[in-house]
Amino acid sequence: MYGRRKEKPGAGTHATGQDLELASSHEPKEANSHQQRHHHPRLNHNGHKVTRGIHPDGESGRRGLHPHHFLRISARSTSKVSMIVNVLWPFVPAAIAVRYTHPEAHLWIFALNYVAMVPTANLIGFAGQELARKLPKVFGVLIEIFLGGIVEIVLFMVLLRKNNDDPTDLEHYNNFIPVIRAAILGSLLANVLLCMGFCFFAGGIRREEQEFDAAISEVGSGLLLTAGFGLMIPAAFFKSLSRSTSADVDAEGLTDKVLTISRVTSVVLFVAFLLYVWFQMHTHHSIYDAVLQKDEARDHDRHKDLKKAKLTLTECILALVISITLVCFHAVFLVEGIEFIVLERGVSDSFMGLILVPLVEKAAENLTAVDEAWDNQMNYALAHVLGATIQTALFNGPLVVIVGWGLHKAMDLNFEIFNAVILILAIIVAGNFLRDGKSNYLEGALLILIYIIIAVAAFSYPNPHHGAVGASEPASSTSDEGAAHKLRFLR
Q1: Residue 463, by phi and psi: left (phi above 0), alpha (psi -120 to 50) or beta?
Q2: Alpha helix ranges (H) inside 196-312
Q3: Chain centroid to CA 203
Q4: Are 392 and 381 in contact (CB under 8 A)?
Q5: What does the angle CA 348 – CA 354 – CA 358 come to, to the nearest 5 degrees?
Q6: How far is 289 from 118, CA to CA, in rounded Å?
Q7: Of the candidates 128, 145, 140, the residue with the CA atom closest to the CA atom of residue 55
Q8: How many Å apart are CA 393 and CA 387, to the nearest integer?
Q9: How far is CA 423 from CA 32, 300, 389, 408, 459, in A?
Q10: How far apart are CA 298 and CA 172, in angstroms?
Q11: What is the CA radius of gyration of the chain?
């Protein structure tokens, strides 16, 4: 294909790795397929000896850690946009330094750590992509999507760990559960509207329209509808009975029932995620593998990507350890500033969860998917967009509910009606655009505009009960005093 020279196997004195990989057309197809299944080519496209267990596309030709190559390759990143994002790395030490030297500067701590999350998340995405190149295609994409969701999982866990909704503990009162709930839906919206919209728009600029396989779009949109239905059940249950005059259920009993339904729903969605992974990895692996191989043939920059220097396996693991560690620090510092931003600056829980948190946690994944759409790899782009959305709906969201169950925290799926309605509508709109298997820049622009409308509405959406952070039930006088106490403390 790209970057390979086809020669007759008998030419010259030695058969090269390319000769082995590009077997003679006179050999039986069965022999060729058997050879490809059981033997790696000795040399890859760059002339590097291929290590056993490493895919030829991901072979770096080096072993261990080489600091100069590691820094140079990491700075280059996956695309020009990702490379530009790396100029934000000075914010990383600045954010940590300001947190420890000026702990009272809440706004600066929040802003610096918010920006610092972008380059660290970008490094996770790049290291994940380098690691995925070394693995079989479908498994590599799944690993890359999972690593891209690490930032989201870390933020959810930190928010959950910092949550303390006991109104009697005024000094440590922080109810972040509504922010987590909004962030779960916000992540889904950022993927199906903003990221998919930019993919359609970026790809549509270079060509009249792009096509993608039904194996990617139909399974993805079907799972999204299933996940959306499951996530909305606890909220619909609560809203129906809370306004019913005939139901013999008190407020405390209704809250307990919603919490139980949320936990059971989370377990069921978690099982659905495992079935989805098994579907892609085992029973229908060959279908997805063929689709992704077809996409590689349409990649306009594949010959350039193959020639690029690559990280070693050791360097991939080191980059992931460094970036995930930094993300954990920034997540903790970012969450510490959320209370100040909500109470002191008047930013609503909905805007914080639906827009601000998902934008920073999805930055790396979005850049990767848009770059793939730009290179005419729409199946790869949708695999990342829909895969990340499915992971949030079927794994990350249920995971935080199950972990909250273990920590004895009342983390449920009782979403605000406003958030629930826009999610269902977003899934329906995105599914409609995926139905015909084609995309263009107009569809992408429409998805982006819908996201902007939602952002404006979320910014104007008020916090319930006088701005008490995350209040979702009628606040008692004690919780109002707690919120007032926190306002005085922050000031």
Answers
A1: beta
A2: 196-206, 214-242, 251-278, 285-297, 302-307
A3: 20
A4: no
A5: 125
A6: 31
A7: 140
A8: 10
A9: 48, 35, 12, 28, 16
A10: 55
A11: 25
**Which tokens is 62 given?**
């080096």
Supply the pLDDT for residue 79. Answer: 73
pTM across the whole model: 0.78
Structure confidence by residue, pLDDT tens digits, 71-103: 888 888 777 778 888 899 999 999 999 999 998
Task: For residues 313 and 108, give the distance between their C-alpha atoms in angstroms, rounded to a whole number.
Answer: 37
Q: Are 230 and 401 in contact (CB under 8 A)?
A: no
The SS3 of residue 453 is helix
For 211, list phi and psi in degrees, rounded to 5: -115, 150
pLDDT value at position 294?
Answer: 77
Q: Which residue has the tokens 């998805």?
A: 447
191 touches 427 (CB < 8 A): no
Q: Which residue type is seen at 228?
A: G
In the numeric block, which tokens belong to residue 428? 């329906």
What is residue 98's predicted lDDT score, i.e. its pLDDT? Answer: 93
d(CA 436, CA 209): 12
Low-confidence stretches of the chain (pLDDT beneath 50): 1-38, 40, 466-491
**CA dist., res. 287 & res. 377, Å (int):** 16
| Phi–psi pair at 260, nearest 5 degrees | -65, -45
Element holding 326 (H helix, E strand): helix 313-344
Q: What is the secondary structure of 8-76 as a DSSP string?
A: -TTSSSS--HHHHHS--TTS-HHHHHHHHHH---SB-TTSPBPPTTS-GGG--S--S--HHHHHHHHHH
